[in-house]
Amino acid sequence: MPLHKNVISSTSLAIGALSKKTKVNIETIRYYERIGMMPHPPRSRAGHRTYAQVHLKRLTFIKRCRELGFTLNEIRALLGLVDGNDYSCQEVRTLTLQHKAAIQTKIKDLQRLETTLTQISDKCTGGNIPECPIIDALYAE
Amino acid sequence: MPLHKNVISSTSLAIGALSKKTKVNIETIRYYERIGMMPHPPRSRAGHRTYAQVHLKRLTFIKRCRELGFTLNEIRALLGLVDGNDYSCQEVRTLTLQHKAAIQTKIKDLQRLETTLTQISDKCTGGNIPECPIIDALYAE
DNA sequence: CTTGTACCTGTAGTAACTACAGGTATTACA
DNA sequence: TGTAATACCTGTAGTTACTACAGGTACAAG
For residue A48, which nucleotide's C1' is closest to its Cα? Predict the structure, then answer.
């Protein structure tokens, strides 16, 4: 897994330290390794995973992408480009814009839901009666 | 499972017919039964599920709620009120408004994501060069 | 009588983790 | 040096809301 830029080798980290630095759960880090998002790191004599700067950067990348709502598959594609060391800005941009379009669709869907919920709940007087226009609206044939 | 209003007993439906009427997948209907969202219907001599108007209404209710983004647990709460035959309009309204608030939060989150993605991808010239500001932004420490 | 369709049960797979159970290794302190 | 706490290990199961089989039965039409 080649790094993008500015690779500085430094002291190694145990999984707990990496977890604290990146704010990624320990179990999640191991999970990423299992599914191939993170490489198998070298092990210490005791069998503990020892992480270097490379891993810290990669995990940070994954974390940021997740926060931006990319799925693991989308991130895999992004990392694939980077790993191949043969990506063009154009390809990355395309993936990013596709993702943005998906988000915009989701926003519109949710806004439509919100409108419907507002309409439905506006019908409700909020009284203590058992005849509820919300339930009626949902239950009717 | 008491009905809300206008219960008209009529001909019974096989699972395929119910599925077609409600546009809910057959496997999903059986799944709802397994997890207790739908009651166990009576069986025909051949062991086939036979559904009545009650089931059609209940499933329609579930479907509508799902389309409105309610989780199965939220729907369970709603159905619990209806099943208890002792709900007040107020309770239903509260659940609905809570759900609406959650949707509004989600919309805001997604809008923030969209803004960030726009900012990031605006930095990109879209050229064919391997130095990509998007990747840089995500990869940097 | 055979073919097709609709139904049946039960299990496994999806996404992205999280939460154990049960075991080892290292470190801190008395 | 002994022991107790902590950090790590592996492997499996649970979460949400389904979907997709595999392998089997029942019934109707030609």
Answer: D8
